[in-house]
Amino acid sequence: MSKVNWENYASKGFFDELIAAPGKPRPEAAMLCQYLADLDAREISEHKTAAEVAIQLMGITFTVYTEGNMIDRAWPFDIVPRIIPLSEWQKTEAGLKQRVQALNMFIDDLYHDQKIIKDKVFPAEILQKSVNFRPQCVGVHPPHNVWAHICGSDLVRDKDGTLYVLEDNLRVPSGVSYMLENRNVTKRVMPELFAGGRIQPVDDYTSQLYDMLASMSPRPGDDPCIVILTPGIYNSAYYEHAYLAQQMGVEVVEGSDLVVGEDDCVYMRRIDGLSRVDVIYRRVDDMFIDPEVFNPESILGVRGLMRAWRKGNVALANAPGAGVADDKVVYAFVPAIIKYYLDQEPLLPNVPSYLCMFDKDREYVLANLDKLVVKPANESGGYGMLIGPHSTKKEREKFAELIKADPRNYMAQPTLSLSTSPTLCADGMEPRHVDLRPFILSGETPWVTTGGLTRVALTKGSLVVNSSQGGGSKDTWIVDLAGN
């Protein structure tokens, strides 16, 4: 590992988050870049080792499913933060709040009057073929009319510096614990950089999450009973479930720990008897939360939970059925959804999209598979995608058949030139592609994390940032240039 020389660092053809040109850091990154340049090769190596030791001691892991096995791995972390100026972030935050407000109004409308369909702004056929629309949720009025209480929207920056929303995760979004732990690790490794007060804090997320969940309680009071419903210790996000529960001071429960009584209220089994539960932050997918209503073979959920929820005796976050808007085809309509419900222009742009259900779009996609990214409507984690420029002829032929067989299930977007950020590699500092997942909480009022989880493609040239497919992450700094 060598000493950092920013004169030798170049991210050709891409927008770099820290370095504007060789040897010229962006204003918000000047402090960090000078700090790193002042370190010798031994000190840089020591910083990297210190981060790895901290991750081991703190027990920060994630689970990878591979060839039928589950492997716990140490969280892959890069010590060089990604930096965004506060002035830009304030605009981004406003755009995220606008977006999630409109999406919640959209979900609520779909389960009630469906005005947006009657007014021909949103095609009925998309709803008819939605795998995440839940007829069992029709007519329900969740607290504050909010369905997606926790949203993780993925943002990407193109080569011209424009920040786009790539997708919205409204079912059971994960990753926020890693955002918080990334900051804890960075503070251990480079504590002196936080002394000036320019780097905005992120550690209020769990208190904001607790307050939002408490505001949903059907029994208003100072001490509602809140639990996190997990599929169990073998779930890939179990580390996060346990972390958030510990930080909020609430219980982690599995389906077998809960029971719905004859009064249609939910109770937690305790050593001293049953205790009523007010709010469930569920990390179990819709189809497994209640075998009475959904998958009858599920052992992950609670029989009768939907009855209790429909009667308003327990609050669920996120609400069942919120995933109807977590659909990559629905995504293409979000600018129209914002205009329809809020009568506003979107503050954050979508990536241009082609919907294969439309003949003209489908013809274009099939003719340009080598140039586009093709996504199925409801996959996540980077699975099931075709990245055209990196694909083989055989892969493109396979996707052409898939698209023709089920056009509604596929959409395509141009291959963006994802921004890069300096990343510490075996041969020194190199550019690697990044995205960003901020988290938006929606209760009585919306709230957005200060920055989010920056994911980084650790493989040179790769655009895949998902940790399940070899990606890592960085701390994300929102820097106040006007600060002291």
What can you tell me about this protein's structure?
- With 484 residues, the chain is an alpha+beta fold.
- It has helices at residues 30-37, 41-58, 86-110, 115-118, 124-128, 176-189, 205-214, 238-248, 305-310, 334-342, 359-367, 393-405, and strands spanning 19-21, 24-25, 61-66, 69-74, 77-85, 150-157, 163-169, 226-229, 251-253, 258-260, 266-270, 273-276, 279-282, 315-317, 354-355, 372-376, 386-387, 410-414, 420-425, 428-437, 439-442, 446-448, 453-456, 472-479.
- Strands 5-24-23-20-19 form a five-stranded mixed sheet. A four-stranded antiparallel sheet has the order 7-6-21-22. Strands 9-8-13-14 form a four-stranded parallel sheet, with helices on one face.
- β1 and β2 form a beta hairpin.
- The radius of gyration is 23 Å and the shape is globular.
Write the layout of secondary structure elements.
Blueprint: E1 19-21, E2 24-25, H1 30-37, H2 41-58, E3 61-66, E4 69-74, E5 77-85, H3 86-110, H4 115-118, H5 124-128, E6 150-157, E7 163-169, H6 176-189, H7 205-214, E8 226-229, H8 238-248, E9 251-253, E10 258-260, E11 266-270, E12 273-276, E13 279-282, H9 305-310, E14 315-317, H10 334-342, E15 354-355, H11 359-367, E16 372-376, E17 386-387, H12 393-405, E18 410-414, E19 420-425, E20 428-437, E21 439-442, E22 446-448, E23 453-456, E24 472-479
Parallel strand pairs: 5-24, 8-9, 8-13, 13-14
Antiparallel strand pairs: 1-2, 3-4, 6-7, 6-21, 10-11, 11-12, 15-18, 16-17, 16-18, 19-20, 20-23, 21-22, 23-24
Helix pairs in contact: 2-6, 3-10
